[in-house]
Specification:
alpha+beta, about 170 residues, Cytidine Deaminase, domain 2, seven-stranded mixed sheet
């Protein structure tokens, strides 16, 4: 992982704000997340979390899943923002995915940006690797961090070996 240098922060802040714009469209009842995939200075895919095909009648976000062994990030009906961004890029710009960077942002109920925690979603890391995305960007407490995807994937698995209760 590398923290972005001062000269890189302005561009990254623009992309994080774009991911937040997308997050404000989220249909999930628990979290408002958004992702944009950027290649050569252009957004090639974007996505927010919500039920498949945005069918709000099929949402199960408000159900309690405490008795399941599923990990916290998979106790929802929602398509993750990262998945939807990859699918969007595959439809619109499949030839530009290789070497791209995914920016992820979560917003609170008021639509304000919230800082990300550690990498933890192994499903998202594996899917983005398979799609050809090269880097995963998170705006964390210590700064804007860019993770090479293989490192992000490793850290996502390690998250669950530590004593983290939830992300």
């Amino acid at each position: 992982m590398m923290l972005l240098a001062e000269n890189e922060v302005k561009d990254a802040e623009n992309w994080f704000n774009e991911a937040a714009r997308v997050a404000r469209q989220a249909k999930c009842l628990k979290a408002h997340c958004g992702s944009v995939i950027v290649s050569d200075g252009v957004i090639i895919g974007e996505g927010y979390n919500g039920p498949p095909l945005d069918d709000e009648a099929s949402r199960t976000c408000s159900q309690e899943y405490s008795q399941t062994r599923k990990p916290l990030f998979d106790k929802t009906c929602c398509i993750h923002a990262e998945w939807r961004a990859v699918l969007d890029a595959c439809k619109r710009n499949p030839d530009k995915l290789a070497g791209s960077r995914l920016y992820f942002m979560r917003v609170n109920g008021g639509g304000e940006l919230t800082k990300a925690g550690e990498p933890y979603c192994t499903v998202c890391s594996r899917l983005t690797i398979e799609a050809g995305v090269a880097e995963f960007a998170l705006w964390q407490e210590q700064g804007m961090a860019v993770w090479p995807l293989k490192e992000y994937n490793t850290e996502s698995y390690l998250f669950f070996t530590r004593e983290n209760v939830h992300p």
